[in-house]
Amino acid sequence: MKAILPGSGTPQGLQAGSPGQLSSNPDVTGPPRISDLAQPTMGPKPAWLRKALIHGDSEVRRTIRRLGLHTVCEEARCPNRHECWGAEKTATFLVLGDRCTRNCRFCNVAAGKPLAPDPDEPARVAEAIQALNLSYVVITMSTRDDLADGGAAHMADVVRAIRRGVPHCRVEVLPSDFGGRRESVVALAAVAPEVYGHNIETVRRMTALIRSAADYERSLMVLRWARENAPNAATKSAMMVGLGETWQEVLETMDDLRQVGVDLLVIGQYLRPTRLQVPVQRYWTPDEFARLREEALGRGFVACEAGPWVRSSYRADGMYEVWRNARGFIQTHASTSEFLLPPEST
């Protein structure tokens, strides 16, 4: 494992100004251009990114198909989907259709003109959860800039339908930024999800290039509004590395998220879904992810998942349980190797 330079939080051999790797030009300033992200000569994926995929149908897939629903697992080509559908028997439901009004350069969800919200979708999502006997679900959405409220009312209806049909099920919501509409964030927070998430996705400098029509400060404001209006919920965010960000920029993003009250942080390796998305600039090592996790916990995040295969909804229930324990909702000393709280200061 790489050593940390005193006072820098940067692994030795890793310049604070470099894009997560040794660089002959560590001075990275100003917003990048798409031409800056030329296809690097990456070669084969490193050994830690070689993962055997379990193919075949599953109860989750069959239920999703039968009810005409969508999952971000499929739309975004998540590399963990077969694990989640198989051993974990979980899924992240994608509501408000499978067409997004934005076209982010990292995402595989199709962009285009979406259909009107389906008023029967909330009931079908609840039916799927009941059929699969799920105790924890993540509800995310296609960004809907075409709707006056950004889709907040529909997403809130989904949560209400779950509460009515499967009252034991805990719900994590992962909405868009709703175009910066505070009233939309407040409306979704009002249905009291257990976790309110919104992904920062990347560092400030890379946002304009990577996230179509999104804004770094707006995402921070959304998370602040979520904290203020859902005080009994955990707040959560996720980001990718491997897009050209620097080590120091990742740490600064952590600080920004903590300043607006984010409790849970997820950091994963960006993997290019297809040749239509921006190329990977660098593969971060497992040791570096371990260091990022230590940095996050040291900054006060209640829990952090960081690793090459980690995605925003991966093992979401485990992170929530750590947060519950930390908040004193249940009396237990149980913990897992994946979700360890930082030691108490003495």
What does this structure look like?
This protein has 346 residues and is of the alpha/beta class. The protein has one domain (52-327): Alpha-Beta Barrel (TIM Barrel), CATH 3.20.20. It has 11 helices and 8 strands. It has helices spanning 59-66, 72-75, 81-88, 121-132, 152-165, 182-189, 204-210, 216-229, 247-259, 286-298, 316-327, and strands at residues 70-71, 92-95, 136-141, 170-174, 195-197, 234-241, 264-269, 303-307. The protein has an 8-stranded mixed sheet, with helices on both faces. α5 (152-165) runs parallel beside α6. The protein starts with 58 loop residues before the first helix and ends in a 19-residue tail after the last helix. 45% of the residues are buried.
Spell out the key features of this protein.
disordered N terminus; globular; TIM Barrel; 11 helices; alpha/beta; single chain; disordered C terminus
What secondary-structure arrangement, pairings included, does this model have?
Layout: H1 59-66, E1 70-71, H2 72-75, H3 81-88, E2 92-95, H4 121-132, E3 136-141, H5 152-165, E4 170-174, H6 182-189, E5 195-197, H7 204-210, H8 216-229, E6 234-241, H9 247-259, E7 264-269, H10 286-298, E8 303-307, H11 316-327
Parallel strand pairs: 2-3, 3-4, 4-5, 5-6, 6-7, 7-8
Antiparallel strand pairs: 1-2
Helix pairs in contact: 4-5, 5-6, 6-8
In short:
Helix content is 33%, strand content 11%. The relative contact order is 0.13.
